[in-house]
Design brief:
Layout: E1 10-11, E2 16-17, E3 21-23, H1 40-46, E4 53-60, H2 77-92, E5 97-102, E6 119-120, E7 129-132, E8 135-138, E9 143-144, H3 150-166, E10 171-175, H4 181-186, H5 201-219, E11 224-228, H6 242-253, E12 260-264, H7 281-285, E13 293-296, H8 301-309, E14 315-318, H9 320-324, H10 328-333
Parallel strand pairs: 3-4, 3-14, 4-5, 5-10, 6-9, 10-11, 11-12, 12-13, 13-14
Antiparallel strand pairs: 1-2, 7-8
Helix pairs in contact: 1-2, 3-5, 5-6
C-alpha cells in the first residue's frame, strides 16, 4: 500500500496540485436569469481555495445545452467577461479552478429553449416532470441529432473551452456523466441510433472520444479533463455494456495525456445497482486509464484516504461537504466537526446557505 495521502501534493506533466482534495462541480443557481455569472460567486469559490482544485458548477456550452434556471453559461462574451473577475479572485486567493462544460441534452424542456425541442442521441424521453422557468411540466421526447449536426455540437464544446481559457480558468472538465448528452450517446438505453454514433460499443463511445480529442487539440491536453459515471443511473439512464464501453473509452482517452479523468461512484444504494454495473467504479477501471484519475461520490475522510493510499485514484472530489464546509481541508486535517448542509438552500439564490457557513476557529 502506498504512503501517499490526500494531503500530499500531486505533480504530473499536466497538473500541479497542492493536495489531492478537489471541490466537485456543484450547481448552485446563483447566476442571473439570463445565465450570467454574478459577483457573489467569487466570494463563494474563494472561501474554498484550500482545495487542490476547484471544478466549477456546470456551465452550458450553448443556449441549446441549458436545462436549469440561473446557471452560468460559457458560450457568450458577456459570460466570459463576468467570469474573469471570479477566476482572478480565485487565483489571488491561491486557488486553481477548472470550468465544467455542460450540455444537458434530453434533460431540458422547450421552456428553456425558446420553444425548440431538446436534442439527444435518440427520441427517448425521461419519464416524469421537469422544473422549468414557467413551472413544473412533463418532459418531452427529444429530437435526435442528425449525423450532420454532431460536428456542430463538438464545435460548441471547443468554443466553450476556448471561452473558459479566455475567462481565466486553469482548464476545463467536459461533463460526460450523470445522464447528460455525452452519456446519452454512450448508453444504449438512450441511444438507438443506426448510424456511426450508435449500435456498437465503438460507435456509442465515438462522441465522447471525439469531443475530448477536439478540445484537447484546441486548448492543450494539459488543460483538458473529462468526467464519466460508468455506473450512473441519473435521469433513468441504462447501459447494457458499461464495462465494455468504458474499457474502450478510457483506453482511447489515455492516449490524449489529459490533466485527469474523473469517475463518479454510484449515487444510489449499491445493492440497488443492476448486477452488471461495477459497484465500485474507480478500482474497476483503474487499469484502463493510465493518467491521473479523480474519483467522486459519497467519500468521507477515511474512504478518501483509502482510495488514494491503495492507488485506485490520485485525487478525491467532495461535493456537498464543500457546500457546508468551505474550509473542508482544514477540518479534515484537524479532525474537526463538520457543518451539516441545508439542502433547502442549494438552489435558492443569495448568500444564505451559500457564503454564510461558519469557518473553523482554532
Amino acid at each position: 500500500m502506498s504512503t501517499i495521502d490526500i494531503y500530499s501534493p500531486l505533480h504530473t506533466a499536466q497538473l500541479h496540485l497542492r493536495n489531492r482534495i478537489a471541490m466537485a462541480p456543484l450547481t448552485r443557481s446563483r447566476a442571473t436569469a439570463d445565465y450570467i455569472p454574478t459577483p457573489i460567486m467569487a466570494e463563494y469559490y474563494c472561501q474554498r481555495t484550500e482545495s487542490g482544485l476547484i471544478v466549477s458548477e456546470a456551465s452550458p456550452i450553448s443556449p441549446m445545452g441549458i436545462g436549469y434556471v440561473r446557471i452560468p453559461g460559457m458560450y457568450s462574451q458577456a459570460q466570459v467577461e463576468a467570469w474573469k473577475p471570479i477566476t482572478a479572485a480565485i487565483h489571488a486567493s491561491g486557488g486553481k479552478i477548472f470550468a465544467q462544460l455542460w450540455h444537458v441534452g434530453r434533460n431540458s424542456h422547450p421552456d428553456f429553449l425558446n420553444g425548440e425541442l431538446p436534442v439527444s442521441a435518440s427520441d427517448i424521453p425521461i419519464k416524469g416532470f421537469k422544473d422549468t422557468p414557467s413551472g413544473k411540466k412533463e418532459y418531452v421526447a427529444p429530437r435526435p441529432l442528425k449525423n450532420s449536426e454532431i460536428q456542430a455540437l463538438i464545435n460548441d464544446y471547443v468554443n466553450a473551452a476556448q471561452n473558459a481559457i479566455a475567462a481565466g480558468f486553469d482548464g476545463v472538465e467536459i461533463h460526460g456523466a450523470n445522464g447528460y448528452i455525452i452519456d446519452q450517446f454512450i448508453c444504449d438505453g438512450t441511444n438507438h441510433r443506426t448510424d456511426n454514433y450508435g449500435g456498437s460499443v465503438q460507435n456509442r463511445a465515438r462522441l465522447a472520444i471525439e469531443v475530448t480529442e477536439a478540445v484537447s487539440q484546441t486548448i492543450g491536453s494539459q488543460y483538458t479533463a473529462i468526467r464519466f459515471s460508468p455506473s450512473g443511473t441519473n435521469g433513468q439512464m441504462y447501459n447494457s455494456t458499461p464495462v465494455d464501453v468504458f474499457d474502450l473509452i478510457l483506453t482511447e482517452i489515455s492516449k490524449f495525456d489529459l490533466a485527469y479523468v474523473c469517475l463518479n461512484e454510484p449515487q444510489i444504494n449499491r445493492a440497488d445497482l443492476p448486477a452488471h454495473y461495477p459497484k465500485y467504479v474507480a478500482p474497476a477501471f483503474r487499469d484502463k486509464y493510465k493518467g491521473t484519475l479523480m474519483t467522486n461520490g459519497g467519500y468521507n475522510l477515511e474512504t478518501a484516504q483509502a482510495v488514494v493510499s491503495n492507488g485506485h485514484a490520485d485525487v478525491v472530489a467532495f461535493g456537498k461537504l464543500f457546500i457546508s464546509n468551505p474550509d473542508l481541508v482544514s477540518r479534515f486535517r484537524n479532525q474537526a466537526p463538520l457543518n451539516e448542509w441545508d439542502n433547502k438552500t442549494f438552489y435558492d439564490g443569495g448568500p444564505k446557505g451559500y457564503t454564510d457557513y461558519p469557518i473553523l476557529t482554532l
